[in-house]
Structure formats: C-alpha cells, structure tokens
C-alpha cells in the first residue's frame, strides 16, 4: 500500500471524525454510489432470508413466493445453509429487533408453521441494510472512510455464530468476511519480520474459512489443526480473538494460545501484520480482547501438529429420569480433577459425555472411566470407548453426523469453574448443588475445554487469566421462540442471569468466556478480561482513535444507552 494513499485516508478519517455532530441526513445522497464504485460494485442491499414467505415487508405489499419460501424452510436449521447467506444468523433472534418484535423469522421447531408469517409482517429487524462483500484491505479502508464521513455505524459479520448479536446491527453498514476462503500451510512458517529461527509448522486461513473446511484441508495434508466443535464457526473471527476452545484444549491450548499472526486493517486505516515480532501490543490484544474491536482481520495463521495423533474417544449416554441424573453428576464432579490430569476434554451433560484424550492408552481410558461407565450401563445406557487415528476421524464420526441444529433463539450463560474447587469436598459439593439446582430450568452443558495441562507462556494472551486455572467452562442455555412476548423474552434472559448468579457465588473471583457468557453479564469487563482490561482499553484507543468500531460488551463499549443498541432489552423495565 502506497504511503500517499495512506496519508490521504488518514486525513479523510480525521476529517470525518472531526465532524462528529454532522447530521446523518446531510451526507450526500450519492454517498452509497461512491462507496459501491470504490469497492468494485460489491456493495449490496440485504433482505431477510425468509422474506419470500411473507406478504408484507416494511409496510409494503410483498409477493409471497411458495417455492422460494419452501427452500428457506428446508434450510432453516442447517448451519451450512445459514452461513452462506449474509442475512442469516445461527440464532434467529439476532436477525430481529428483540425490543420491538420487528422480525422476519420462521418457527425453528417447525419452519413450515404458518403462524410465523401470518401473525407477523416481515421487517428488516437488526439485519444491516447494506453490506460489502469484502475481498481486500482496500474494501475495509473504504468502509472506514465512509463510516467516518457519514456516521454510519459499522458491523463485521463472518459466520454469524455470535451469541451476543455482535455481528448484526440495525442500520449499520456491514463487512461480510465470508468469501475470504484462501488456505495455505507450511512446515516452516516464519511470522513476518521475525528471525528465521522463529519457525513453526502452521496453517493460514482467510477470514471466511470455517472449521470443517480447515479440518478437511489439514487432514488432506497430513497434519492437525486445533479448533472448535462446529462445522461453520470461523477460524479467524470471534473464535480466534475471544478465546477459542476445542475439546483438545486441555492439552493443546486455546485458539489464542496457538495463533501466530493476524493480518488486519485497524480503524486508523492502516493495514498491519501483528505477531510476536511486530505490532506486538496489538497482537496481544487480538489474543483474547475479542472480535469486532481492534480492526478487521483478513487472515490468521495458527500452529499445527504433525500427524498422527491417535486419540481415545469416550461416548456415554443414558435416558435421564427424575432420579438418575444426580448420581451421574456426582460421579462427574468427583472425577473431574483426576480426568483433568489425564488430558480428557469434551462435553458433559446430565445424561451424556463425549470426551477425548491424546494422553492415555485404550486400557487406561477404560480404567479411568470405569465408575462412570458402570453407572451408565446400570441405567440401561450405552458406553463406547474406542481409539480413533486422528482428530479428523473423530470429527467426521461424532460431530458432523450429530451436527446440532441452528436457528433457535438460544441464550447462553456460563462461568469458568476454578480447578481448586474440584480439590476439596466442600468445593465439589458446592458445584454439585449448583448443577442440581439448575436442572429444573436449564441443563448444564459442561465444556471441558480449558487449557488445564497446557504449558502457557505467561502473559502471552489477553483473555481473563483465570482460564488457565479452571477445569470447566460451565455453560447452559435458556430459550424463547419466534412468537415469545417481550415479557417472555425478558424472563428467559433473567433465568440465565439468576443461574449464573449462583455460579458466581461459588466462584466469585473467576470469570466467564467472552464469547459464551451472558448477554447481560454484570461487570463484564472483569468477568471477560479480569486484570487485562485496562491494558486492552488503552490499546483499543491507540488503534481506534476515532471510535469507528464498537460492539456490545466489547473492550471500550459505548454502553447500552447508545441508540445503536435499541434492539437489546432493558431487563429492569
Ligand atoms: C453452534 C455453535 C458452536 C460453537 N462452538 C464453539 C466452540 O467449539 N468453541 C468456541 O470457543 N466457541 C464456540 N462457539 C462460539 C463462537 O466462538 C463465537 O460465537 C464466535 O463469536 C464466533 O465467531 P465468528 O467470527 O465465527 O462469528 P460472527 O458472529 O460472524 O462474529 C463474531 C464476532 O467477531 C467479529 N468478527 C468476525 N469476523 C471478524 C473479522 N474478520 N475481523 C474482526 N472481527 C470479526 C464480529 O464482529 C463479532 O463481534 C460456538 C457458537 C455456536 C453458535
Ligand atoms: C419464486 O422463487 C423462485 C425460486 O427462488 C424463482 O425462480 C421465481 O422466479 C420466483 N417467482 C416469482 C413470481 O418471483
Ligand atoms: C401487516 O401490514 C399490513 C399493511 O400495513 C397491515 O394491514 C397488517 O395489520 C399488518 N399485520 C400485522 C400482523 O402486523
Ligand atoms: C508441560 O511441560 C512439562 C515439563 O516440560 C512436560 O512434562 C509436559 O508434558 C508438558 N505438558 C504438555 C501438555 O505439553
Ligand atoms: C503423515 O506424516 C507422518 C509424519 O508426521 C508420516 O509418518 C506419515 O507417513 C504421513 N502420512 C501420509 C499419508 O503421508
Ligand atoms: C445414545 O446416543 C446414541 C447416538 O446418538 C443414540 O442412538 C442412542 O439412542 C442414545 N441412547 C440413549 C439411551 O439415550
Ligand atoms: C470420589 O473419587 C475418589 C477417587 O477419585 C473415590 O475414592 C471416592 O470414593 C469418590 N467418592 C464418591 C462419593 O464417589
Ligand atoms: C430411572 O431409571 C433407572 C434405570 O433404568 C431405574 O432404576 C429407576 O427406577 C428410574 N427412576 C424413575 C423415577 O423412573
Ligand atoms: C406461539 O406459538 C405456539 C405454537 O404455534 C403456541 O402454542 C403458543 O401459544 C404461541 N405463543 C404465543 C405467546 O402466542
């Protein structure tokens, strides 16, 4: 990028930022045309995906189209369908304006339910009305300039998996990262500007690449990349910048532990490379400070492991009834510290467990889980403990085939559970009581995905440091539906807040995963970043001097009273 061009851009940004009080109505009406030309015509208007099902759109008659509507219904709960459409999000409620019920969604439990389009008219909701299909750093620079000059807020959307609605925003100009799909790898990757002695086996993925695509590429090239438990979560976006857990994290670390380099356009308009040798403050901030905050990432590079990595897999489940979940959870809580030392990672529920470890032999794995297996067998359940040759073999067999449906109005809550609690009888009892107390209103979803055994480099990441001393990322969900009333939505969020309050009471000095915490997390700065928050805020102010990027409970967040957050709920009303 030529220096002259940069200077011009910086001047334009400064000019735009100086006119902070300019009315949005006063910006030239042809501004959108100019922007469209600047980005090679890749500026589009976005419409809700379910529009063909509806008879009215934003107050106007709309011609319902049965065949197009049937296609939307067929894809409605499929992540691969949703990820390919700009206007679709993995949780439907982030397409709606929750506070006003302006929406254009279907019934996720039965997408053909006509109530969804008979009782509601189609509204744009919180889907950004314009988006740029980003292909280069220049597209991002054009968007920053446009935003600074017109005061149009920006939002970055990759896969649309965000649980807090940070990739959709009513009235914003969106940057859609999905089509940056390049991948490459090297046995001797040297971060840009580092000495050649800093060499790593590494894979680079464009911002739009999702995990299944990355796993297939890695397997085809005979190496393993450590990533998330869902086909379409992005490799380079919110996952990599906010934490990034894998069920192999206990041994191999989090995404933020393994990332080597980001290519990013910071909101001051400059295209930068951040790694251990340059822009090191920015690199640290990107390793945990969160997506949508410090700039727009175009690609990321991650350390990889040579194959083969054989893993022991345990899949246990039984039919829950009113009496048999307590005994199971008691065994789980009691065994968790020992399981942690054996490298197990995975997901555990009130009547199931799917865990893996690369550290044990098959016999050791069976012995480790003997008590749990006996319990499941006694409930008439199923126990499979087997060796698979690789992470990819596991993913193909256990994850793709059992892909969780999306499209539901899921609300998460969570807390990182400190290892020390699992080492005393009192602590174990407190955890067990908390799990049992939440059962009537929400099922615990225990993510054994903290870097418990991983040998971290102290201070290398900016996530809440409590991650490294925790054994569980303990989560759960509550939900509402396409036709919930405002009070029902508030109640669903409030139930989550109340459950997390009980977890916070037994782990008051801990925190929560910024990507999978409460939408309405109190004291979110401490919960998500702990002692790292102040440093993150000063780095945010350095690289985003005009405040062009802002997102809900992100570092430097403008707060709920900012009109761009009018679609969020005020739970205390
Ligand atoms: C079904 C499901 C499964 C999940 N599984 C896991 C898991 O196994 N492990 C785990 O750790 N998390 C998991 N998550 C949570 C996931 O990490 C977060 O939802 C994360 O925010 C997704 O990031 P994304 O970029 O894919 O999504 P998006 O919703 O597109 O973006 C999320 C945030 O990142 C920002 N962002 C996206 N792309 C960029 C970019 N290129 N540059 C700058 N900012 C960007 C957005 O503005 C937004 O703030 C899961 C979520 C769901 C819904
Ligand atoms: C209805 O949708 C189908 C498929 O999406 C399209 O081919 C067709 O032209 C549409 N019909 C009308 C009347 O718009
Ligand atoms: C939909 O919009 C039409 C036209 O404005 C209006 O008559 C109708 O009452 C609306 N229906 C609903 C459910 O809001
Ligand atoms: C951490 O380091 C110790 C000491 O070098 C080593 O024994 C152990 O295997 C390492 N743990 C992991 C998970 O790599
Ligand atoms: C994969 O790499 C390993 C070494 O890491 C090697 O032993 C093995 O033969 C390779 N397999 C294939 C199919 O190339
Ligand atoms: C256990 O899970 C398998 C695979 O999902 C399923 O087929 C089986 O019905 C489940 N068994 C019980 C007892 O829930
Ligand atoms: C808890 O686990 C220990 C071994 O880790 C075992 O000795 C003890 O009996 C277990 N207690 C209960 C109540 O299961
Ligand atoms: C729960 O299931 C177990 C195992 O099948 C059984 O022994 C027990 O009686 C059941 N309890 C209830 C309340 O159904
Ligand atoms: C929502 O729809 C469901 C199923 O169609 C129905 O049972 C329920 O009563 C509706 N709720 C409201 C608040 O309208």
TrEMBL record:
It comes from the Eukaryota. Keywords: Oxidoreductase, Signal. One of its GO terms (molecular function) is oxidoreductase activity. Residues 1-22 form the signal peptide. Residues 124-307 form the FAD-binding PCMH-type domain. SUPFAM superfamilies: FAD-binding/transporter-associated domain-like. Belongs to the oxygen-dependent FAD-linked oxidoreductase family. This is FAD-binding domain-containing protein. It comes from Neolentinus lepideus HHB14362 ss-1. The lineage of its organism: Eukaryota, Fungi, Dikarya, Basidiomycota, Agaricomycotina.
């Amino acid at each position: 990028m030529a220096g002259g061009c940069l200077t011009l851009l910086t001047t334009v940004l400064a000019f735009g930022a100086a006119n902070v009080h300019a009315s949005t109505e006063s910006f030239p009406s042809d501004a959108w045309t100019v922007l469209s030309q600047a980005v090679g015509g890749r500026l589009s208007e976005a419409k809700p995906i379910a529009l063909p099902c509806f008879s009215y759109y934003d107050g106007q008659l709309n011609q319902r189209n049965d065949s197009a509507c049937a296609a939307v219904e067929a894809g409605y709960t499929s992540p691969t369908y949703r990820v390919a459409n700009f206007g679709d999000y993995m949780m439907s409620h982030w397409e709606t304006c929750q506070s006003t019920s302006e929406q254009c969604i279907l019934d996720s439990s039965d997408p053909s339910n006509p109530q969804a389009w008979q009782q509601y008219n189609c509204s744009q909701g919180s889907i950004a009305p314009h988006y740029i299909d980003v292909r280069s750093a220049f597209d991002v620079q054009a968007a920053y300039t446009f935003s600074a000059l017109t005061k149009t807020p920006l939002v970055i959307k990759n896969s649309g998996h965000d649980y807090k609605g940070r990739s959709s925003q009513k009235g914003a100009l969106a940057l859609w990262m999905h089509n940056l799909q390049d991948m490459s790898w090297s046995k001797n990757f040297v971060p840009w500007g580092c000495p050649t002695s800093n060499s790593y086996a590494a894979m680079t993925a464009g911002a739009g690449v999702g995990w299944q695509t990355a796993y297939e590429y890695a397997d085809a090239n005979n190496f393993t990349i450590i990533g998330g438990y869902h086909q379409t979560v992005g490799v380079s976006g919110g996952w990599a910048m906010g934490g990034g857990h894998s069920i192999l994290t206990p041994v191999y670390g989090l995404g933020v532990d393994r990332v080597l380099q980001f290519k990013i356009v910071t909101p001051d308009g400059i295209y930068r490379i951040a790694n251990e040798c340059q822009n090191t403050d920015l690199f640290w901030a990107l390793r945990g400070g969160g997506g949508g905050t410090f700039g727009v990432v175009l690609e990321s590079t991650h350390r990889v492991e040579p194959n083969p990595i054989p893993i022991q897999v345990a899949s246990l489940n039984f039919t829950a009834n009113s009496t048999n979940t307590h005994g199971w959870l008691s065994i789980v809580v009691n065994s968790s510290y020992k399981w942690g030392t054996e490298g197990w990672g995975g997901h555990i529920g009130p009547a199931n467990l799917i865990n893996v470890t690369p550290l044990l032999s098959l016999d050791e794995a069976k012995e480790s889980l003997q008590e749990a297996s006996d319990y499941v067998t006694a409930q008439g359940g199923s126990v499979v403990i087997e060796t698979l040759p690789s992470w990819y073999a596991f993913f193909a067999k256990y994850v793709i085939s059992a892909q969780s449906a999306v499209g539901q109005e899921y609300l998460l809550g969570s807390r990182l559970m400190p290892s020390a609690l699992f080492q005393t009888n009192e602590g174990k009892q407190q955890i067990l009581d908390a799990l049992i107390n939440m059962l009537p209103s929400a099922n615990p979803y225990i993510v054994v995905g903290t870097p418990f055994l991983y040998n971290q480099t102290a201070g290398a990441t900016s996530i809440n440091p409590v991650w490294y001393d925790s054994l569980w990322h303990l989560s759960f969900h509550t939900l509402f539906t396409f036709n919930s009333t405002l009070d029902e939505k508030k109640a669903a969020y409030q139930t989550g807040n109340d459950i997390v309050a009980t977890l916070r009471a037994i782990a008051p000095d801990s925190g929560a995963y910024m990507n999978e915490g409460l939408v309405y997390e109190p004291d979110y700065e401490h919960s998500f970043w702990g002692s790292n928050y102040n440093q993150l805020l000063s780095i945010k102010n350095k690289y985003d001097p005009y405040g062009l990027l802002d997102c809900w409970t992100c570092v430097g967040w403008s707060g709920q009273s900012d009109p761009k957050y009018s679609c969020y709920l005020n739970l205390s009303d």
